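name: query_chain
kind: protein
chains: 1
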Amino acid sequence: MKHLTDIEIAQGKELQKIKKIAEKINIDEDDLELYGKYIAKLPLSLIDEEKIKKNNLILVTAMTPTPAGEGKTTVSIGLTEGLNEIGKQATVVLREPSLGPVFGMKGGAAGGGYSQVLPMEDINLHFTGDFNAVEKANNLLSALIDNNLQSSCCNLNLDPRSILWKRVIDLNDRALRHVTIGLGGTAHGIPREDGFNITPASEVMAILCMAKDLKDLKQRLGNILIGFTFDKKPIFARDLKAESAMTILLKHAIQPNLVQTLEENPAIIHGGPFANIAQGTNTIIATKMGLSLSNYVVTEAGFGADLGAEKFLNIKCVASGLSPKAVVLVSTIRALRHHGGASKDVLNQPNLDCVKSGFCNLEKHIENIRKFEIEPVVAINHFMGDSQDEINFIINECEKIGVQAVVSDGWANGGKGCVKLAEAVVNVVENNNSHFKPLYDWDLPIKEKIEIIAKEIYGADGVDFDKKAKLNLKRIERLGFNKFPICNAKTQKSFTDNEFLRGRPKGFVVTVREISISAGARFIIPIFGQMMRMPGLPSVPASENMQIDDNGVISGLS
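structure:
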């Protein structure tokens, strides 16, 4: 029997009108800003801090992933379906997909199989234009910077060599990492070196995800550090009077987007920073919106728990006052084989010895979650090539350390395949097993905060700071940004800054190459190893397998 692809499953579903979905969480039709029949934006007035305190936030994260990812979004959606299946009112709150991965290696980010959010094509492509708005706001600031360089009436004396701000585009395009602009004579601007980041790495995206309302968004945009004058004085976006115009471009983007799951449950999708080069979580506004409307909210943080979950807990939760009641740690047999030494060509073949060797990676993530005084539940995201012996090994090893491991079969069976996972999560919540506590105090020195994360979360023996990073630390101290939290940019493929070290490496030191300041988002970004904020395409991009017929029907999108 032929197995349907993700897009075939999505296209075979007759969608409910978004007004019907809104009714399930008591949203009045007049509060919806409709984007067609199946998508709507929600007003910020629906956020209710008193209701937020009474409801339950569940974070979904993962062990260190393989390049294909371990299915956090699929598990998040499946868990939400499962919670509704057992009678809980649940909403999933997710990030918006980036076109870079959609057309690159990983594909879309709307879930998979029978655990999807819909309309899948719209969500994975332009959706409601939020990414476009972030991109335009970012690049408006770039245009204002270059305009000021050649202005005679209001020049800020900005040193072109000191400019920190880059342009962005929502594609993987390595050729844009380093560019020279302003060539062709005086009519075309001041020549200088520049570059592009991918849109999810823009500080504007980070700010959108951290802002509490439109006023806060505008203030944060004005606080963006863009560079320095020739006499070393800092220049901010507000000095260019840029913040109001940038906020105007983001007026609608700040509103969360309401869609539906395959089983017609509500889903909120908003914001889209990557977790290896940004904070990797949806917006504070979207999470609070979900908690204002549902008893249970399931949300996910990107890549492994050493990245997305660490940032979710130490940055987002502290900034917003949110407190997760449980953490679901997604594992796959495939990833355990990978960390146990299996080569890429045999990852889908049963190998109990490799699973045993790779369990150390999952075990370290379990230890890390418990450092935040939150109790994890391990979700074994089921694939067809998994053997029962491998599954039993994980369940038994987790039981030895007091953690429940449950097979999650949402990809194949939707909510019914996640009932046991939902019951395990509810058990943790109702037994009040979690009392969230951040790993570090924001008031600690920057260097000490970086070292705490590296030693406690990655398992490093220490941190080396390159010459440029040390100079950056002095600049941070001079500018008075010491009390910002840390948002590490590090490979997602390893606990270390070396992507080839699998499992649970020991006896290593990580290296901070440089440290960026996100004064608007209000965090510091140490860049480990060779991390770049503009990915490249793989040798065979996913775009090559996509088709559209004469009637506009898309295939090959996943």
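note: The longest strand covers residues 509-518.
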